[in-house]
Automatic annotation (TrEMBL):
InterPro entries: Cro/C1-type_HTH (IPR001387), Lambda_DNA-bd_dom_sf (IPR010982), TransReg_Diox_bact_type (IPR050807). Signal peptide: none annotated. It comes from the Bacteria. It comes from Flavobacterium lipolyticum. The keyword DNA-binding applies. Residues 13-67 form the HTH cro/C1-type domain. The keyword Nucleus does not apply. This is Helix-turn-helix domain-containing protein. Keywords: DNA-binding.
Length: 70
């Protein structure tokens, strides 16, 4: 099954979040998002804006390119 780009990016956010030992709630708080929004983002059910991805990258302390290494 072919995954969409938003699903791949969401999965990547989840992988990095787990590597960095953040709960979904912790990452959502750092980004100023609701946990439900973070869940939709990680599940690929939300088409993230660039500003949303920027907040996630800042919170995870990663370069944007890391989100696209799949």
């Amino acid at each position: 099954m072919k995954h969409s780009l938003q699903q791949k990016v969401g999965k990547r956010i989840q992988e990095i979040r787990i590597q960095k030992n953040f709960s979904q709630q912790e990452l959502a708080s750092k980004c100023n998002f609701e946990k439900s929004n973070m869940s939709r983002l990680e599940n690929g059910n939300s088409n993230a804006t660039l500003s949303t991805l920027e907040k996630v990258c800042d919170a995870l302390q990663i370069d944007y390119i890391e989100l696209f290494k799949f």
